Amino acid sequence: AVNHEYAKPDTPVRDGDEVAFFPPVTGG
């Protein structure tokens, strides 16, 4: 996610952007 929005792998990240990574989660 970039700046609290889901982003595609090719989304450019600029200086000052907030980046979050969501690991794959399995559940039942």
Strand content: under 5%
Give the end-to-end Cα distance, rounded to a whole number of Å: 24 Å
How many helices does DSSP assign?
0
Task: Count all strands and give the number.
Answer: 0
- Report the major sheet: none
Rg over CA atoms, rounded to whole Å, is: 11 Å
In percent, how helical is the residue content? under 10%
What's the mean pLDDT score? 90
Shape assignment: elongated
Secondary structure class reads little secondary structure
Poorly predicted regions? none
Record the SSE blueprint.
Blueprint (H helix, E strand, L loop, with lengths): L28
Task: Describe it.
By secondary structure, the chain is mostly loops. It has no helices and no strands. The mean pLDDT is 90.
Key traits:
single chain; 28 residues; little secondary structure
Give a quick rundown of the structure:
With 28 residues, the protein is largely without helices or strands. The chain is 0% helix and 0% strand.
